[in-house]
Amino acid sequence: MANVFDELKNRGFIEQTTGDDAISDLLEQPVTCYIGFDPTAPSFHVGSLIPIMALAHMQRHGHRTIAVVGGGTGLVGDPSGKT
């Protein structure tokens, strides 16, 4: 099975990086990755699909994936102060 980095590049998820070899080497072993969604948004939208699909590719290649939705993600990742 190809490295997930190559898969993401071939599918157009990655435009430009620094240290392609180091990233590729890192992704040879299982890593944990996550996506947090804004709990203050009125709903999911098509822009939410891209990171979800990236997570799906990571999972198919044996990596551990986490999707965070709800109040916790707003507390750690929202600099605007919304609650």
Q: What keywords describe this structure?
A:
43% helix, 14% strand, two-stranded parallel sheet, single chain, alpha+beta, 2 strands
Report on this structure.
This protein is α+β, with helices and mostly antiparallel strands and 83 residues long. It has one domain. Helices cover 43% and strands 14% of the residues. It contains 4 helices and 2 strands. It has helices at residues 4-10, 20-26, 46-60, 71-77; strands at 32-37, 64-69. A two-stranded parallel ribbon has the order 1-2. The radius of gyration is 15 Å and the shape is elongated.
Proportion of residues in β-strands: 5-15%
Please tell me what the overall shape is: elongated
Number of strands: 2
Structural category: alpha+beta
> Helical proportion?
40-55%
Order of strands across the biggest sheet? 1-2
Summarize this, please?
The protein is 43% helix and 14% strand. With 83 residues, the chain is an alpha+beta fold.
Give the topology:
Blueprint: H1 4-10, H2 20-26, E1 32-37, H3 46-60, E2 64-69, H4 71-77
Parallel strand pairs: 1-2
